[in-house]
Design goal:
0% helix; mainly beta; 51% strand
């Protein structure tokens, strides 16, 4: 059974940082590109960042470029998203996702003072 389990969300003040993790299981994780997507209240799904299967190529939405860093550890079957300089508009449910296997249940990130 394929599982994508996100963690690391929470409440943080503007300018703060969080590190999200996504534990993958049930498939050969190292063979697949992965992404982070998010959904703010009342809005559609937004792609945030992507990484190729080896981790050497990363991609970012303009809205997070320079503030977020995606990475992966293929020995631990884990995907990460380091989020710095967080803004209130980053408030959303964050999901790790695969084109082949869908997305997890998400972890909530709330940026508020």
């Amino acid at each position: 059974e394929v599982q994508l389990v996100e963690s690391g969300g929470g409440l943080v003040q503007p300018g703060g940082s969080l590190r999200l993790s996504c534990a993958a299981s049930g498939f050969r994780y190292s063979s697949y590109a992965m992404s982070w997507v998010r959904q703010a209240p009342g809005k559609g799904l937004e792609w945030v960042s992507g990484i190729n299967r080896g981790g050497g190529r990363t991609y970012y939405a303009d809205s997070v470029k320079g503030r977020f860093t995606i990475s992966r550890d293929n020995t631990k079957n884990t995907l990460y998203l380091q989020m710095n300089s967080l803004k209130p508009e980053d408030t959303a449910m964050y999901y790790c996702a695969s084109d082949h296997f869908g997305r997890g249940q998400g972890t909530q990130v709330t940026v508020s003072s």
